[in-house]
Amino acid sequence: MTTTPNTNAALWGALLAGSGVALGAFGAHALKNTLSTEALATFETGVRYQMYAGLGTLALAALPGQTRAPTLIGAGAVVFSGSLYTLTLTGQKWLGAVTPIGGALMIAGFVLAAVDARRRA
């Protein structure tokens, strides 16, 4: 039984959150005059969900036994947000079909976190 913080989850959570701040600033400043309003909103959605995943992963890192869920959440954030960033920067609309896979991974991660928390209660 793990009672120490999950340092891998803390690392990835911090990287997701920190890069989310950087990408948010990039979008707000560098892309503001380059992208359409709709594309900028899509980019910002990626940033928002990346930040949710980063903060959630950081929180889970502090809880004992939360070793599986952070992996799913992190992978989901990379797929979800990454597909939105790539879609907005390249115009490759087919990437919109990939985005829900990332969302499903994040949802599964948070559900797994709840299941694991319940088992430890």
Automatic annotation (TrEMBL):
GO-annotated cellular components:
plasma membrane
What PANTHER family does its record include?
TRANSMEMBRANE PROTEIN 256
Report whether Transmembrane helix shows up as a keyword of the record.
Answer: yes
Question: Which residue ranges traverse the bilayer?
Answer: 46-63, 70-88, 94-115
Q: Which domain of life is it from?
A: Bacteria
Q: How does it sit in the membrane?
A: Multi-pass membrane protein
Record's protein name: DUF423 domain-containing protein
Q: Major place of localization?
A: membrane
By sequence similarity, the record places it as follows: Belongs to the UPF0382 family.
- Asked if the Swiss-Prot or TrEMBL record annotates the protein with the keyword Membrane, the reply is yes
Q: Which InterPro entries match?
A: DUF423 (IPR006696)
Per the UniProt record, the source organism is Deinococcus maricopensis (strain DSM 21211 / LMG 22137 / NRRL B-23946 / LB-34)
Coiled-coil annotation reads none
Pfam families cross-referenced by the UniProt entry: DUF423
Where, per UniProt, does this protein localize? Membrane
